[in-house]
Amino acid sequence: MESDWGYIEPEKLFFEAGRTRPLSELVDNLIEKWEPQANRFPSATAEQTIEIIPKLEHQEESSTSNLNAAKKILKTKDSIQKHSLNLKRVSFEVERFAANETYDPTERESTKTQIALRLGAKPEKKKCINYKAMKEEKLQKKQKTEYEKLQHAEIYSLKNKKKRKTKNKRNQL
């Protein structure tokens, strides 16, 4: 019952509510349980010999020199990244300057929108078209293409007829 940590089963919760123990009492019980287990590990005695391994001076220097070399490498990588970021920043500034200095206001607006799109802005929505009007446009385009096909077929058939007539005349002679 001491190992239950004050846990009361759900069936007994309302009928046999047990006594809940304070935290200090629970901790004391836990320490008493673990003390015998802590003594299981062998401790160093006078009979056992302890071997001390001295650290050589050149070992310390080599480890610190490696750290210094690593710091230098990291610094160069940081400077390369900063340099590439600066190039991006400069090219952006040049594009922005060119966009602001254009004479034509419509061109200026279009270049500004292109820069904004490159920087991650959402593109403009397409203009809405009435469904009936769009259907009419598609129908007109379809009729126009069919008409062009018919004209092309008529022209092609006339050419073939002329060729046939000339062949027939040659054969008759």
Defining key terms:
FSAF1-like, elongated, 173 residues, SSU_Processome_Comp
Describe this structure in words.
With 173 residues, the chain is mainly alpha-helical. Among the domains are: 2-38; 77-121, no CATH class. Helix content is 68%, strand content 0%. The protein has 4 helices and no strands. It has helices spanning 23-38, 57-101, 105-118, 131-172. Helix 2 runs antiparallel to helix 3. It starts with 22 loop residues before the first helix and ends with a helix. The model has no long low-confidence stretch (mean pLDDT 74).
The secondary structure category is mainly alpha
Strand content: under 5%
Q: Tell me the overall shape.
A: elongated
Strand tally is 0
Low-confidence stretches: none
User: What characterizes the major β-sheet?
Assistant: none
Taken in chain order, the helices and strands follow as HHHH
Average per-residue pLDDT, rounded, comes to: 74
Radius of gyration equals 46 Å
How helical, in percent, are the residues? 55-70%
The end-to-end distance, rounded to whole angstroms, is 128 Å
Number of helices: 4
